[in-house]
């Protein structure tokens, strides 16, 4: 999803090549899930009013942002995640739903009490039906091995809800809550990786974290405005596949200030931010071949590569893993143009998954990347020493390769000394920033699994000079240089 004060505010220098790339591969995308963008890529262009950006552990993202939002819901909660596991996060979610159910049960019982004569004729319902949809992809190896291949997914019966760590049907029914729990997975590796929360079709959150037990460094963006419609449309095409999609209601909630907040021991900043041109980007790859010759040219892949290809001065990528050859190739091309590239990633994270899906690891890929970059620098130096002195050859006009900086995440030393159990052990943030103008957040990593076999979701903001302290401050004590070596 791309977002801003108006979609037209996104620079044509990005929009034209992005649309051209999608159009040239339209036939390849007709089997994607979803594929509603094929006929008109403009349906992904929208505007968003960001309310907050947070960084912290996954549990803190839930307890500080997502669960309080769930507690305010009056008509609908849509929670989509990838991994679902017994964890403090799941326990906190269950408590939140139980507390919400109790509040609604009390409100409904109050509604049934005879009212004073002056209240007769007041037909307002203090507790209308609350529709909750919980969607996930991966729960266990057994669940994935025997999962239905249908795009309609598997809907869990009410009797299974407690085994999923959720309240019982009785508790929810007494509170006027209608719950549906569904999973989607496509063998062998195609998870539906997006993570988002929509509250009453007026507020949306896109976190990087799952409902799981890992203590990872995460981020989350909250927004309002037309972009919520776009996110709901994506949800309808994926999770309500084969069903009659619910009508999109008008968004009436007043917009709120934009807030930066870092979880844990780091305090955030507050600032006002106008609407930002944005676009909802996704990778709809579950139906694709497992070993395609090139990265699928879907909206999210095309957006990231277009940003890298058109970068003028700087590219910053924060990703759990980096094993996608297409990304590395485009970054080398950007470096050759003089663009500075900064990468923040994690070391030794999900090694088995990397080897199975990519045949390599982040560490090996980065070593190869650095060697190729050093050859690029050496070639430029050699050209400058020989032919570069001859002004007529024009060789000395070749740009000097941009600076490459690569960092591995490491836990904060002070938190480790204090035995802080909430200190994130690896970074799971997915963030792309280009020229201090474009920001991409969402579920997509820079590894082969995300680029080739998983369904991913991202939101691209055109937001020049967005304050990045929410990430920069906590990262300032949590990085170790990989290249250049310290």
Automatic annotation (TrEMBL):
CDD domains attached to this UniProt entry: PLDc_SF (cd00138)
InterPro entries: PLD-like_dom (IPR025202), PLipase_D/transphosphatidylase (IPR001736)
Domain PLD phosphodiesterase: 188-215, 423-450
Ranges that cross the membrane: none
A molecular function GO annotation: phosphatidyltransferase activity
GO term, biological process aspect, one: cardiolipin biosynthetic process
Gene3D superfamilies per record: Endonuclease Chain A (3.30.870.10)
Name of the protein: PLD phosphodiesterase domain-containing protein
Gene source species: Parascedosporium putredinis
């Amino acid at each position: 999803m791309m977002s801003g004060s108006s979609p037209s505010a996104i620079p044509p220098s990005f929009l034209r090549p992005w649309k051209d790339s999608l159009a040239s591969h339209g036939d390849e995308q007709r089997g994607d899930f979803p594929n509603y963008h094929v006929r008109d890529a403009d349906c992904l262009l929208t505007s968003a009013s960001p309310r907050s950006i947070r960084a912290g552990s996954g549990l803190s993202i839930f307890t500080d942002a997502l669960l309080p939002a769930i507690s305010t819901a009056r008509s609908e909660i849509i929670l989509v995640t990838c991994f679902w596991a017994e964890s403090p996060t799941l326990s906190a979610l269950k408590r939140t739903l139980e507390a919400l159910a109790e509040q609604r049960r009390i409100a409904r019982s109050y509604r049934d009490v005879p009212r004073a004569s002056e209240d007769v004729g007041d037909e307002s319902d203090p507790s209308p039906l609350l529709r909750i949809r919980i969607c996930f992809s991966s729960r266990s190896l057994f669940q994935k091995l025997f999962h239905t291949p249908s795009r309609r997914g598997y809907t869990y019966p009410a009797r299974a809800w407690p085994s999923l760590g959720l309240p019982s049907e009785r508790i929810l029914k007494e509170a006027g809550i209608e719950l549906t729990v569904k999973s989607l997975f496509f063998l062998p590796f195609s998870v539906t990786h997006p993570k988002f929360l929509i509250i009453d079709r007026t507020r949306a959150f896109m976190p990087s974290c799952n409902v799981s037990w890992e203590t990872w460094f995460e981020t989350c963006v909250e927004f309002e405005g037309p972009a919520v419609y776009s996110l709901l449309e994506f949800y309808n095409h994926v999770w309500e596949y084969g069903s009659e999609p619910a009508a999109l209601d008008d968004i009436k909630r007043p917009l709120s200030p934009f807030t930066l907040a870092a979880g844990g021991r780091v305090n955030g900043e507050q600032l006002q931010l106008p609407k930002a041109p944005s676009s909802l980007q996704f990778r709809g790859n579950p139906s694709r071949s497992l070993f395609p010759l090139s990265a699928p040219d879907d909206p999210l892949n095309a957006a990231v590569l277009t940003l890298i290809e058109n970068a003028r001065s700087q590219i910053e990528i924060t990703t759990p893993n980096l094993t996608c050859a297409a990304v590395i190739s485009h970054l080398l091309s950007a470096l050759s143009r003089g663009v500075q590239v900064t990468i923040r990633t994690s070391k030794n994270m999900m090694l088995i998954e990397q080897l199975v899906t990519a045949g390599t690891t982040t560490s090996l890929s980065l070593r190869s990347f650095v060697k190729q970059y050093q050859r690029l620098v050496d070639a430029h130096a050699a050209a400058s020493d020989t032919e570069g002195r001859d002004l007529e050859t024009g060789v000395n006009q070749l740009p000097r390769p941009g600076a490459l900086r690569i960092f591995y995440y490491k836990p904060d030393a002070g938190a480790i000394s204090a035995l802080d159990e909430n200190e994130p052990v690896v970074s799971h943030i997915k963030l792309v920033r280009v020229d201090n103008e474009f920001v991409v957040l969402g579920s997509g990593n820079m590894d082969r699994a995300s680029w080739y076999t998983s369904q991913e979701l991202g939101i691209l903001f055109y937001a020049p000079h967005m304050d990045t302290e929410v990430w920069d401050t906590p990262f300032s004590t949590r990085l170790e240089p990989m290249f250049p070596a310290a």
